[in-house]
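User: I'm curious what two different proteins look like when written out as structure tokens. Can you demonstrate?

Assistant: Sure. I'll show them one after the other, since each token string lines up with its own sequence. Here's the first protein:
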Amino acid sequence: MNDPSEQRHEAPAILPSIRGRCPKCDAPLTADELHAMTTVCPGCKTELQIFLKANWAYTVASLTIGVVVAYLRGHESIVLGIWALFYGMVVLLLIKVYRWELHLPIKIVEVPNCSFWPTTKP
């Protein structure tokens, strides 16, 4: 059994990547759990919201890229501004769509209770 041809190699188990933690119970949240439309903590069943950190920086960067692309394509004056907004919004949309694949930093918060009065009867 010491012969290298006789040794068996098993594939390593694929562990789910932990992408964040629940702010209420500190349970680990995987990327698959955060991709769901309504994110719920598997431990305490709290509804969660996911935000991009430094969202303003992505907006400024995408609009700057939009201005550069519009200028390089030869647009001038007000047309430059219109096309810069268009290209910038396309880049910002791509950032928002591919935020999980780009592993951008996220902030996980609990969904606030926005009711004006209690929904349970005493």
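Here's a second, unrelated protein for contrast:
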Amino acid sequence: MRRIASTVLPFLTLLLAVTSSGQAQTRREKILDDRSKVVAEGFWIYNDLPEGLAQAKKSGLPLLVALRCLPCEECVKLDEELIERHPEVGPLLAKFVRVRLVATNNLDLSLFQFDTDQSFAVFFLNAQGTIYGRFGTRSDQIQWADDVSIEGLARAMEGALELHANYPANRDQLAPKRGPRPEFAVPEDYPLWKGKYSARLNYEGNVERSCIHCHMIGDAARQLARDRDGQLPDELLFPYPHPRALGLVLDPRERSRVVRTEPDSPAFHAGLTAGDDLLTLGGQPLLSIADVQWVLHRTSGAGGPVRAEIRRDGVVREVEWNLPPGWRQRDDIAWRASSWALRRMALGGLYLKQLDEDRRKELNLPSDRQGLYVEHVGLYAPHDQAHKAGFQKGDLLVSFDGKSDFLRETDLIAYALNQIPVERSVTVQVLRGGEPRELRLKMVR
């Protein structure tokens, strides 16, 4: 690794847990070592939001609250590569009260509402709880560079400082950046986690097992809906839709600058074009792609117009972005960690992938026909229903409940969860070694 500028070191402390010995550590050792380093350096307030709010009130500075569970090895690689490239974040951090949250235990869910499947989330807010914006998103299990960058974080921080300087004149415009009051105040109150987790981490004992991770919030919300109604509304099944699903590709190095729009997409028909800067969406100022997703998340899946203010060639103008009915279902959820729970409910623990074009040609399978095969079969409860039913790795799904037009695993999951009643068994036809087989799969809670 090349030498990192000293201005970046505080941010490195936030996102990268390093060891003094270089030797492999246990998960618990990494967490304790990380806490010791952060507390000793004093640049970040460690896992204490009330203290951060108090300091913000006293100093008049805005807050930057970073949520990132530790240790996360995948995030370490992401963060290390990002930090190496960009030295300007450190000076910007000095203009914020900096709070680092390493778990969601006792997290105020009326204040912190975000896509819980992402690797890390950053909130910009003030001492009164007004949210200026969010940063952080994801659209793939391992690829991140198309979605976030340190350059983009710097632009978001600059935007947050501008909004803070204009507060409280902009208070009404910022109000929609907070969602409605949730049913449960904190994650540990959800029925799925009630009695299993407490409001604090157990640093004296098994600290790594006492942590409520971000994705567990979404898991609990979806399981609650499944238990209550047997179905999952699109707002839970397709949360925080990615703009790419609507044909809008944004520059991860900027706040919300258009790189391109896909032909015949909702973004294309709205007249958005490369170089446009999205200033507001639904009346809300935008600091990053995460803010775009927030507005989309709060928009009805029934479709309709969403007003956008853009700057093109130095001129500010308005455009109307019309979302078609069922627009949320254009998004892909297969990459999400939370989809493993959905696979248990809908697919009995199967993990499906799409055939590549070469394999389709071998099978003489048209591009508009279902081409899903079993990549993985869960072997252990509660993800072993498909295994018990006789499914095997490599099985090619010919039809599911009499249908053969599911082009994505996402489409099949959505159909199974919302069209097939819980406890009902469906017929699944597969090809195994070129031979047809018929299996039965039961829908579970």
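A detail about the second structure: Residues 1-22, 74-85 have pLDDT under 50 and may be disordered.
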